[in-house]
Predict the 3D structure of the following.
Amino acid sequence: MKTILPSRTSSLSRLNRMLSAKAFDNARFFILVDENTYTHCLPTLITKVQPLQQAEFMEVPVGEDCKDIAIATQLWQTLLESGADRNTVLVNLGGGCITDLGGFVAAGYKRGIRHINIPTSLIGMADAAIGGKTALNLDNSKNQIGFFHQPAIVCIDPQFLDTLPDGEMFNGLFEMLKTFMVGSQQHYQQLCDMILQGTLQISADLLASCAEIKTAIVKQDPHDLGIRRILNLGHTFGHAIEAYSHHDGQSPLAHGFAVGAGLVCALYLSVRKLGLDPAILDRYRAVAAKLFALPHYTLRDTEGILTYMRQDKKNANGDILCVLLQDLSAPVIDLPVAENEIRDALLKLS
Ligand SMILES: NC(=O)c1ccc[n+]([C@@H]2O[C@H](COP(=O)([O-])OP(=O)(O)OC[C@H]3O[C@@H](n4cnc5c(N)ncnc54)[C@H](O)[C@@H]3O)[C@@H](O)[C@H]2O)c1
Ligand SMILES: [Zn+2]
């Protein structure tokens, strides 16, 4: 995997050079978009990356609805009917939903074709486009089907953030906060300060640091068998909170916000189980509260959320396993957490 790190002036020109090189001779490009990235991002991409000017494009519904096996099947059919062979390259232009779906389709088509991720949302640039995890949702459960399939190239160009709505920016900040919590105290404190002081600016340097931390962790453990699991901080709670919010009459929470709430729960348990400094929980809670209203749960809600947590992919031998923190940059993976502790953390969320 080659990563083109964020630069306002040169990311797409580097991609242009890479796609003009021998490795992509005779490649046939398909670009996967949703309605928003078709309107806001595709014109810039094909203007600046000459080899993509003849590309065909495929559009799918916006958001989680596209991470569905029926949509993946339609895309495989389109590729097959167009005569796409193994030299086909799928270019995923969009947020995490597009790169999760596109990566899945590329992994499955003719036992695997190359794909290029061009993230256009903050979640995508900070996290989803990097690392080769692809995923579809199954029934009400997030990311239950997927392959590891590394993208040939990840090209991060912050100019795509110019059209991203504020809510989507805030949503993405939580994956950055998570990565910095486990990977860089200095960047974590810098990002918290900016959010608390209302001076938020996502610079190319900050994005690059986040992408580099994730890339380095993935390199050590591409198949999520050990250290990569530290990136799941907040996600055992987060995925369940997200699924519950979509299917149990709550207001639906996007992935980043659900992870944001999950991080409060994880830090709460970290204070109790691993002696994390409570000031870290308090400061993070203040940061999260600046970005959205944390959900308030009753006992009935906790039972609903627990149902989803019991299905988490990371569970083993019936235990619900979480990543917790001893300190910033000191995560502990695979900690069994009792259902009563989970109820307590959810009830104390707000
Ligand atoms: N594979 C991984 O490692 C990984 C990591 C983190 C998150 N994820 C997945 O990512 C998904 C969430 O990502 P997301 O929030 O980017 O979702 P998304 O793809 O739905 O994008 C969010 C919204 O922003 C719009 N958008 C994207 N770029 C835009 C732009 N430049 N201008 C205007 N609108 C734009 C999209 O159309 C959509 O409405 C979840 O499904 C999550 O599970 C995967
Ligand atoms: Zn995530």
The chain has two domains: 2-164, 167-347. The chain is about 50% helix and 15% strand.
